[in-house]
Amino acid sequence: MSFASWGNALYSGRKSYKFIDNRKYLLIAGVALMLISVLAISVLGLERSIDFKGGTEFTISSVAGRDQAPAQKVVNANPKLKGSSVNSVGASSIRVQSVSLDTTAKRQVVSDLAKAYKVPEAKVAATTIGPSWGADVTYKALQSLVIFFILVALMLWAYFRTWTMAFSALFALCHDVLITGLVLALTRVEISPATIIGVLTILGYSLYDTVVVFDKVRELSVDFEQQTRSTYGEIVNLAINQTLVRSINTSVVALLPVTSILLISWITLGGGTLRDISLALFVGMIAGTLSSILIAPSMLMLLRSRTEKISSHTQKVLEKRAGGSDQIEGQAAELSRVAQPLKAGHHQGQQAQPKRTPRSKR
Prior knowledge:
- The chain is of the alpha+beta class.
- The protein folds into two domains: 8-48 and 133-312, Multidrug efflux transporter AcrB transmembrane domain (Multidrug efflux transporter AcrB transmembrane fold, Up-down Bundle), CATH 1.20.1640; 55-129, Glutamyl-tRNA reductase, N-terminal domain (Beta Polymerase, domain 2), CATH 3.30.460.
- The protein is built from eleven helices and four strands.
- The protein has helices at 3-12, 23-44, 50-53, 69-77, 103-117, 131-160, 163-187, 193-220, 232-268, 273-304, 308-322, and strands spanning 55-60, 85-89, 93-98, 124-129.
- A four-stranded antiparallel β-sheet has the order 2-3-1-4.
- Strand 2 and strand 3 form a beta hairpin.
- Helix 6 (131-160) packs parallel to helix 8.
- The two termini are 51 Å apart.
- The relative contact order is 0.14.
């Protein structure tokens, strides 16, 4: 079966994956991952960049290769540089980040690094970021996340006119943020302003994916309580299957350039801003795609299945099926909601015209 045929089968309902039937397991797995993420972030912590925690940064440019050993020797020999990090930046630069140093100590480090790499002192740049600046950047980053979540909640409530969809979408966004944080904590990649930009970007991407699924749910569930062929859970499951191919295509197209940037920045350039933002995008897009398909609809069904409207309708459908008065069963009931697929190259032509009575028999 080709990908196009597979997608056609999903959309028409001839093929269906039982996402909603397994919603409890999906939610348990999602919540477990979120708890593991919180635990890992709490124990390991996030490696904040100098932009957030403040300190002094030394950048040695015009270095032949990306050998970090000379800089590491300087760090080990200077007690004031204890706990400093050494990283390669780009193809010919080395970066050393330490706690805030006074002017005298800073000049000494510049001199030592210049001698270690046999470059003029002019090639060693020293920048100091105060703790107040770092605290302000941290506050702004957290503030932007809070504002984003508030605006998302208001927008979803206004668009869908139901708090269950808004809550489910926010739950999926929290899942994406925590999974991204888990990967950042495990890889020890620094959290920089570029990382925050990447996180906000993937939140928007994940939200868009979730809204597409929920919009399809709303479309298929219009006046659903007036029929007894499909339960609300079957309608939600059909909506997921109908948008599955679109979600896969969008994710693959978006991940291809992000993966290229991530590999180039990590392997060739050795890190930096491109790596920070591309890693957050890479992890967040994968988590966002999965959450929009598996987590958000499952949470929506968990919340709505407890309402009187949904539970009574589901009971009515199941009773009618058990009584044998409804000949349409399971997913076959969902086929009535979508157009039947046409065979390529085939049309009814004149067969679609009404039959006419011969002139002699009029």
